[in-house]
Amino acid sequence: MKSSKQNKLHSIDVKVLEGLALHGPRNTSKLAAKLNMPSGTLRYRINYLRSHFSLRLLGSLYHTYIGLRKVVVFAESKPGYEENLYRCLKSNDYWLYVSQCFGTPKCLAIYGIPAGKEKEFEEFLSKLEELDMACTVKFFWSTCFQNVNTTSAWFDDPSEEWVFPWDSWVKEVLTKKGELPYTLKDPEDYPQRGDWIDIMVLKELEGNCTVKLKEIAKMLGISLQRLRYHFENHVIKEKMFEGHQIVAEHFKGLSAETYYFRFVFKNYENFAKFACSLMNKPFVRVMGKVYGRNQLFVQVYLPRRQLRNFIETLSKLVRAGFLETYEYVIQDLVKTERQSISYEFFKGNRWVYDHKKYLEKLQSTVKRSLQVA
Length: 373
Hints:
Blueprint: H1 11-23, H2 28-34, H3 39-53, E1 56-61, E2 68-76, H4 82-89, E3 95-102, E4 107-114, H5 118-130, E5 136-147, E6 155-156, E7 161-162, H6 166-175, H7 196-207, H8 213-220, H9 224-236, E8 241-247, E9 256-265, H10 268-277, E10 284-290, E11 295-303, H11 304-319, E12 323-338, E13 346-347, E14 350-351, H12 355-372
Antiparallel strand pairs: 1-8, 2-4, 2-5, 3-4, 3-12, 5-10, 6-7, 9-11, 9-12, 10-11, 13-14
């Protein structure tokens, strides 16, 4: 199925998307030089991608080095109470991402919980079942996430169409060698490397990685020199900022859907091969390893007609004894929200986690939901 001419993704656009991820979007003049492209052309293509392919230039944080632990939650609501569960999941201020889903479970949520507060958070989740807002709740403590930005790996330049060589990918998976990025390795600890200025810089970069440092300095009421010192010697040097997240609907016109998979592997070697093979694939948005297990979360963005081919490919890997099992849901992106790190609860260079407040907020949300119902 071909894209409409109005929303045609051209080879030059794929080159721009790849360049934005590889070299960063903060300095378009330098990027244009690296891409051997006039600055005016680059700006035009970026604007074209913004208007036709919903291009967003976001920042990806390495939560581990600011003392936050990622956790992925799957929650199943009672029929008819999906919206209530959705609101309840946001009762904890440390949510990063909440999405309703088609299929089972009905909700997906991702949190960044201050290290040392895991038991309190697990109690918060158990209250969802106790208060009858969820039938079942499954949670998985995770590593930080690895973003996978668009590359030209599966884009055919002559036809300017995406191709999906699934058989070749199976061979690649089975023989892949390489080193996993640090984002997909179990961390030994969760050090707090940032101070208040660092956290505020990260918050701004997360929502717009092209924001100018002078704008952040003005917002914080500090000198540009001081802000730049924090940015270069703390945020970047201490690896609190993972990289640029270049998000675009590059399969627009192909009836694409977003899926959230959990893959289970028989051993670490298979897990690592599979994860490494996905590092440049256009159907992958983000990955995260389940802490202490050979399991991988993958947000998949894929044309609907390719889902069957993808599932058949996974079945081959299962039959080959490479992949143990997998599960997935279809995300409802109309009912999906994302928010930045909870910077407002970072005080005295530490995260303040008010467990009692979140339980009370949850109970209040349940009460209001029942009154509306």
